[in-house]
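--- STAGE predict ---
source: upstream dedup step, 1 unique chain passed
mode: sequence only
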Amino acid sequence: MGESFKLLFQLFYQPVAAMSGILDRGSLLFGSLSVLAVSLVLAAANPWQHFPPYLPLLVLAIAYVPGILLLCALIGRVAGFDASFRRDYSPMLTCASMGWAAANLPLVLAAGTAPLPVFAVLAGLAYLYFAVLVFFAVRTVFGARNGAAIAVVCLSWIPLVAAAFLWMPLRFLLGWIASPFFLFYAWYYLGSEFSNLGAGMRRRQSLRRILEAAAVNPHDGEAQYQLGLIYQQRRNYSEAIQRFQTAVKIDPTETDAHYQLGRIAREQGRIDNALAHFQTVLAQDPKHNLSEILRELGGAYLAAGRLEDARRNLEAYIERRSYDPEGLYYYGQALEGLGRPAEAREMYVRAVEAARTAPRYRRPFVARWSRLAQRQGRKLASVSG
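--- STAGE serialize ---
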């Protein structure tokens, strides 16, 4: 219980670490109770509040969080809605509940004392901060990029509007559902299904505990690496870097850890560090990760402005994997920078075609490179025209 309270207050000053901690050590029960407790205080202190105290939790559970899952499936290019619902519903609901309770805690202090106009402004700020916390929750739970997470948060009002339109029929339905007779049979026949809603959270926390136990061994670099991957997927890069660095310290030949450190450094704009790690990987295993090390090294050289080095590595990569849209796009960028527009346009065309003919499950992940290649191809065509 003390750990849950600590995570709740940590959302005010370390939201990224707090959301990651909620996935590792949080409780859906505590999150739900915190929403109910805050709602009860606000309802008791505000005579102008006419909705029942359980309504915020109900809206989060049956409208807002399922809407977030659907938006992430459509925009964030995560797994399909059905698989995402089974895996991510309880983690997302826990994060959203804790976020709602934290964002509304200041209103509890102002309830009953602040004038209505002041309270309305504070309420607006509270819900704005809740949106910020949902952004971090989407990044943490789904590993979504910043742009996708922002888009999901900006569109998350849609399920709320839908819930508002459906509130009257839902209220009528809830009157029937609240019957003890109905609840008994619902739990009897559907109890296992309700229990499965929390399975995603339990699996995440169980895996985390196993890895933490293995990481106690000072000679187990693989456990540190696996923990680093978990934090990297959550975009908690400071913790991921620490885990990968520990893995490398235990075993300097931990090629995978060097590779991930290079990817993070490149994403953060620390190109010199990225190059150092990628060059280490190339020296240890020139075909690492199906030769993707050549693509990553070429991309880092491209970001550093070392175009000839980028071209050389990307050319070698394309010879091995001529169907990768990302590698083709980078190669086109290098050729364009070297003043070879005709060859660059050819690479952009090939990148678009590779994305179009990719297996169906791969298309959401390579669509970005197709769009970038089309844009650059049109730009070159307009210049040459």
